[in-house]
Design a protein that fits this description.
Layout: H1 6-11, E1 15-17, H2 18-25, H3 29-38, E2 44-46, E3 49-53, H4 54-66, H5 72-77, H6 79-112
Antiparallel strand pairs: 1-3, 2-3
Helix pairs in contact: 4-6
Amino acid sequence: MRRKSYLDRESRRLYYTLAEIERLTGLNRRRIYSLERMGFVRAKLRNGRRFYGREDLLRLLDFKALSEDYPPEAIVKSYEELKLTARLKRCREDLIRIRNRIRRFLRRMENGT
């Protein structure tokens, strides 16, 4: 029986803890709390713990991608217009990362044979 990958399990999750959100997005707690106060994401509180949905995770990943080019207030205010820009930027970064892995692999293959 084939084991499911980590990504398959993550994509079906309903809620993420604050620690998981920090790990997946690279944003710190203070930034996430400030985005909550601005109304950008909404945490669900259960037993004093914060839980975030998949849509919140995607919004925070978009925020992280846009934060290099725009101030936080501008991102929160015009998120719907900037959403595609953020997703394009994340895809571009993923492609660059994949290209670099392929180049490293090919270099190893040339040196090994």
